[in-house]
Structures are given as structure tokens and as C-alpha cells.
Amino acid sequence: MRIIRDYKYVAAEDRGASVAIGNFDGVHLGHRSVIDLARQKAAELAVPLGILTFEPHPREYFAPGAPPFRLMSSASRAHRLQKIGVERLYELNFNAALSNLTAEAFARDVITDGFGLNHVVVGADFQFGKNRSGNAEKLAKMGADMGFGVTIAPLVADAKGEFSSTNIRLALTEGRPEDAARMLGHWHRIDGVVVSGDQRGRDLGYPTANLAIDRLHPPKYGIYAVLVDVLEGPHQGHYQGAASIGMRPTFGGDFPNLEVYIFDFSGDIYGIGISVALVAYQRPELKFDNLPDLIKQIDLDCVESRRHLKAIT
Fold this sequence. Notes:
The chain folds into two domains: 2-155, Rossmann fold (3-Layer(aba) Sandwich); 188-312, Riboflavin kinase-like (Elongation Factor Tu (Ef-tu), domain 3), CATH 2.40.30. Helices cover 33% and strands 27% of the residues.
């Protein structure tokens, strides 16, 4: 997959794609329906399949001090898009110049003159341009005038509601990873590089791999049954485990993180990328008065995690 970040300097082989436009945070099933329509049109036109998205997320740009809300980093998004066959990722720098483009200027300067796109697919709720002045219907009219095709994808929902990043965040906030997975089409994953922690887990007999989550939407704090992929190095592979997400109240933590104990694992993975999938929420964080009580609870947590994971294998 080729990544293109500037619409003013575009190689000939990166022009003319069929693209889906959006933020694609989580790459959930609603997003996949938009991407699949772009895929169908790419096959019909014999052109590359692309995604046109923005980094940082416009919400981060306009409210930099707001609490973290993203389901995945830009690198995780790119990795997932590549896995589903996207050939061109047009990841535009969302800055003052881009945010001030009118809807008409975006269609002309970016879609037509910049990338020379053959076809674009957007969701029915798509809005674009300065002050969100453009919508899907306006884009279709502009496409007819400027020479690119437009498909408007219907929103995807089931009996429980619309598949959206907002509803996935709500499910995670409420400790419902199964509902998040239903909308995502896969387990919600937290990716990152293993960082050094306080190494208390090793002293307790439960060494953990630690990931920072400060820039991501935090799931409900507590204990989870998880699947773990070690992405590189001599220990690369698939594992099971139990994870704690939160503030570590027994030890007075001052920032949230994810600590995962990988079952039946021995090895050094500091500095290695891992991916942790949340399968089941088990209990909230608790503060323990002494270490023996904490160890006893960790024993019980691991037994319950194994039970949850056995049910899905």
C-alpha cells in the first residue's frame, strides 16, 4: 500500500483511484461497507482502491485539549486498511489550510485537480468543507459537474442500533467489548510497543507487558480476558492472557495504562510491538490492603480469563 500525504504533489500512478472518504476510526463494519463499494467500483474501472482520510483527526485539530477519543492510532489504521486490500492511502495533513477549504474548493483542488479521482464513495452522513458546509448530496452534484463519480453508501445498523465509532466508544466505556466487536467485525485491539513498567508484576509472580494508552479512548477500567499478538521478534505469535486497564489503585498510579499477563509465556518483549484484543470484561479495578489478597484475586482473574477464552476457541 502506498501512502500519499500531499495532494499538490502526486505521482501519475497515484492518480485516478476509486476511494472511500472518511476518518475510518476503528475501521468498523459501517466503514467496511463504504470501502467495499469503492472496491467494486475500482474493479469496474480497473483502477486502484484507495482511502482518503485525515491526520490528525479533525476533532483532534479543532479541540486539542479534549479527552482522548480515538479507537486506533494512524499507524494501526493504516495497517488494518492494508490488510483489507487498500492500495492507496491518501492521508492528508489536516491543518489550517485544509480546514479552510470550502466544499467546492475541496472537490476541485483535492479530488479533481490534486488526486484526479475517478470515483468517490461516502457515507450518507458525510459532511466536508469549511464549517461542514458540504454533504453527500452536494458532493454528488459537484462530481457530475467536475467529472468524478459519487456513490452514497447507506448507514449500517442492526436491531441494536447504528454501527458507528461513537457507539463503539460507548460500548467500550460501559465494559461491553462483545458489543464493540459486533460493530467492528473483530475484537477491539489496543496496539503499541511494550514499555518498561514498575516491574511489580514480576515480584508478584505475574510479569506483565505494559502499553501506554494515553492517546486512545480508554475502555472501562478493570480486568479483561484478552488475546495477544506479539508482532515481531523471536516470540512472534498468538497468545492468551489477562489484562488490567486503569490507574493501578493499589499502588497509587497517576496515569492510565494497560498491563497484560500473557499465559504460558516466558521471554523479553520490551520494545516489541504487540496487539491486545479485548474479549471480555470481568470486574472493575479494586484497591487491596495487602499483597496476599491482591495475588489471590489475580489467581482468580486468570482462571476466569481462561474460561472466557476457552469459550471462543
